[in-house]
Amino acid sequence: MALSAGEIKLVTDSWTAVYANKKANGVALFVRLFSENPGFQSQFRYLDGVSGLAAIEKTPALGDHAVKVMDTINSWIGSLGDSSAMVAKLTALGTSHIALKVTPANFDAMGPVLLWMLQEKAGGAFTPAAKDAWAKGWDLMKSHIVKALQG
Ligand code: HEM
């Protein structure tokens, strides 16, 4: 179900707080993804031969990738009020991840990690109402990604 104008504002305001520091927060997002899901590391070719979370965190390619991911999410947030534009972007992401062998389970794991980043890094903007709006927003985004991922 689409987000209300109030929910879009809650998502946008808390996102703006984390996007202001996109590289560091994007790296923190991935380090958390790997610490919670150690098996995922092997899906990322630029982490071949990199061992341990401290080394992962310092890998330059992870910083570059993290910025791309944060920019992509930022573009989705900017389209929350324009459903057809947002669905087109989410579908493109899902389709691009088929060849990367990413699974729906990978995207299921991303939700709690995204919420963790917001909780840790968005300061006061991540209110209980913002958390509820994000949970609803991520479910909506994920549903379109997974639909495209499954062809
Ligand atoms: C918020 C969700 C996600 C976003 C916004 C995102 C975004 C991106 C972007 C922008 C790229 C660069 C290539 C491209 O444009 O297709 C990429 C690559 C990639 N993504 Fe995602 N992604 C997300 C979730 C995931 C998940 C959950 C996984 C697996 C656990 C994953 C695995 C990969 C891999 C393996 C690559 C290739 C990295 C490389 O070797 O350079 N992504 N992603």
TrEMBL record:
Boundaries of every Globin domain copy: 2-150
A Pfam family of this chain: Globin
Keyword Transport belongs to the record: yes
Keywords annotated in UniProt: Heme, Iron, Metal-binding, Oxygen transport, Transport
Family: Belongs to the globin family.
Subunit structure comment from the entry: Monomer.
Protein name, as recorded: Cytoglobin-like
Organism: Saccoglossus kowalevskii
